[in-house]
Amino acid sequence: MQLFNNLISYGLLAKLFHWVSFLVLIVQIPFGFYLVDLEFSEKRISLENIHIIIGISIFYLIIFRLIWKSINITPRIGKEIFKGQLLISKVNHFFLYIAILSITISGILKKLYMGEKLNFFIFKFGFEKTNFELSDNFYLIHIYANYILISLIALHIGAVIFHYVFFKDNILKKMLW
After folding, report:
1. According to the model, what pLDDT value does residue 153 have?
2. In whole angstroms, how far apart are CA 92 and each of 38, 57, 81, 86, 97?
């Protein structure tokens, strides 16, 4: 398997970025909703710290994925796909990235404005002053962006299933091993 994309298929790194992103998000999203219902306790703090570490990891993963995407070619889509489908696909992917970055950045800012110092793996950072109102606003963005992300993922998966069942094309095969 080639490392880079070519005009026919995605390379190993693009596939790894795709599937690792999917697996981490499929764990992180329900994990976050689980945390919302927990009472304040040592268990919640410990689990929240894990959630934060995973969230910061997702942020880095998406940044690296976007860099990789920008220096790599995108495989051609078959001629059987009409321009509207291509546009919907590109818009959906764009908003998937926007939603993920909105979630991670708003989560980070929520914690920083609460007065917490975060470990970004290569450095630690915290704000000097707290701002609970801003923290609450970033928390709302964090929550709403998650609902948008869930909708976008559902649309993405639905499109893949639709292509597989009705068009019998190779879109799914391009992203599988």
Report:
1. 97
2. 33, 22, 16, 10, 9
